[in-house]
Structures are given as structure tokens and as C-alpha cells.
């Protein structure tokens, strides 16, 4: 687990996973509980965590994309778009990030 944190690609992949999990929990667990059970506690707990992971993912994607000389029109926008689509970060990890070489 610690090896994944030693490279920028490893950190980006970990953030993609965590951001994806937090989005799924927020949309498919916390929001339904808020509206059907009239209990906003889950949204209040998961929302800020997801927000922080979302921002970290955006910053790390842009930073990694610049360092790797990604073309914004070909790669970066796809990775950035993935974080607002449920299950998107998992797809991007499988399709793009897992195929990149570690530094």
C-alpha cells in the first residue's frame, strides 16, 4: 500500500479510487437516505469528504497531466470528466491510468 503513494501515478490512481467510492456513497446511499428517510446526517458526513477528494483529484490530475505532457484535448479532459460521472474514475483507471508506466 505504501508503494502506491511513492509515485505521482500511484497517488492519482489511489485518489481516483477514493473519489469514485465517495461519489457512489454520496449519490446512492447518502442522498436517498436524506430524501426518503429525511435524515441529512449521511450527506453532512460524506459530502465534505467527497468534496475534498474531488478537489484533490482535480489538482493531481492537472499536475500529473502537465508533468506527463498530456494533450488536454486527448487525455486530460477525459480524466477530469470521469470524476463527475458515477463509476467514471474506475473506468478511467482501467482504460488510461493502469496502462501508464510508473516513473
Describe the 3D structure.
With 103 residues, the protein is mainly α. Helix content is 73%, strand content 0%. It contains four helices and no strands. α1 packs antiparallel against α2. The two termini are 17 Å apart. The mean pLDDT is 94.
Q: Main β-sheet, in a few words?
A: none
The helix-and-strand class reads mainly alpha
Q: Please give the radius of gyration in angstroms.
A: 15 Å
Provide the low-confidence segments as ranges: none
Helical coverage, percent range? over 70%
Overall morphology: elongated
The number of helical elements comes to 4
Distance between the termini: 17 Å
What is the element string, with H for helices and E for strands? HHHH
Mean pLDDT: 94
Number of domains: 1
Number of DSSP E strands = 0
**Portion in strands:** under 5%
Write a compact overview of the structure shown.
The protein has 103 residues and is mostly helical.
Write the layout of secondary structure elements.
Elements (H helix, E strand, L loop, with lengths): L7 H29 L4 H27 L4 H11 L5 H8 L8
Attribute tags:
0% strand; mainly alpha; 4 helices; elongated; 103 residues
Amino acid at each position: 500500500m505504501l508503494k502506491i503513494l511513492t509515485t505521482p501515478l500511484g497517488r492519482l490512481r489511489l485518489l481516483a479510487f477514493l473519489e469514485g467510492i465517495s461519489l457512489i456513497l454520496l449519490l446512492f446511499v447518502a442522498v436517498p437516505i436524506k430524501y426518503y428517510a429525511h435524515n441529512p446526517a449521511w450527506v453532512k458526513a460524506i459530502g465534505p469528504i467527497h468534496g475534498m477528494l474531488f478537489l484533490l483529484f482535480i489538482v493531481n490530475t492537472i499536475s500529473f497531466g502537465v508533468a506527463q505532457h498530456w494533450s488536454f484535448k486527448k487525455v486530460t479532459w477525459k480524466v477530469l470528466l470521469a470524476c463527475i460521472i458515477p463509476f467514471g474514475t474506475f473506468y478511467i483507471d482501467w482504460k488510461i491510468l493502469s496502462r501508464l508506466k510508473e516513473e
